[in-house]
Write a structure and sequence with these properties.
The chain is an alpha+beta fold. The chain folds into 2 domains: 81 residues, no CATH class; 131 residues, 60s Ribosomal Protein L30, Chain: A, CATH 3.30.1330. Helix content is 40%, strand content 18%. The chain has a 4-stranded mixed β-sheet. The protein has a 3-stranded antiparallel β-sheet with strand order 4-5-6, with helices on one face. Strands 1-7 form a two-stranded antiparallel ribbon. The radius of gyration is 23 Å and the shape is elongated. The chain starts with 12 loop residues before the first helix and ends with a helix.
Amino acid sequence: MHIRTREWRKLPKEVRDKRLLSLGISSASLSKVRAEEPRKRLVAAARLALSIDQTANSDFIEFIAGYNSGASLFHHFATMSELLEQVSDGIRIRELDPITTTPDEIDLAKFIPKTFRGYPVCVESVADTRLHVWQKVPGGIREATINRRILRLLFLSGVLLYTTEGSKYTRGNNDVQFSNATPGTHRLFLEFLEAIGVPRALVKARIQLHDAEDWNQAQQYWNDELGLDNNQYYKPMMSPAGTAPRRHTFTLHLKYNNSMLACLLTEWGSDPQKLYAGLTRT
């Protein structure tokens, strides 16, 4: 259960407390939490919040602690990660049941990093064959649902392709982006994304052109090569004339809007030798 608290900010404290009680939090629990000094109070509130909502945000924690939104948490803790480190139980994560894989497959649950950029990465099973991967960061939640099973060679190929031709996660660039002019390279990367669990129909595309008159020809070319639909394209990217030789294949930029998957791809590709060693041991 995810508790949305945006509308709670305008409510009087008494009304918010009634909503907390309706979620199953007892008045005794609230009194016990609020009897602590401020820093310990927030830790106790976080522990209680996470028992109800595994993706609890700072507002929910502050309301349990008896504060207004933005009134205290970040006065005592620099980040949500720092607060969560103080919660002895940490973030509640379901135990993953083992799955059976063939010698050619891997279980991606074994390759999910414990942290990314200092924040814990959490994993839950979804109907045995899929994983829900998420990370609580200041300002919200990153999350992605991916398949657990994937061919070992396809996984390594996809990660290495992304490492060489894809964008790396940054604050200003936090989606999965991949650029190349070779159809076979794009076909392999799309096959990798589909194996991870990303439907091809959700991937967007942008063609880089040197002449606007090439647009229809370029779009039809990539539709034929990759099986894309016309509604998957953004406006073409126009390159200044004379900046590069004309390519009859045209450069194609693929984009999938999911920052959690971008984090995973960046982390997996950060040390290819380590990834290869891990794949050979699994």
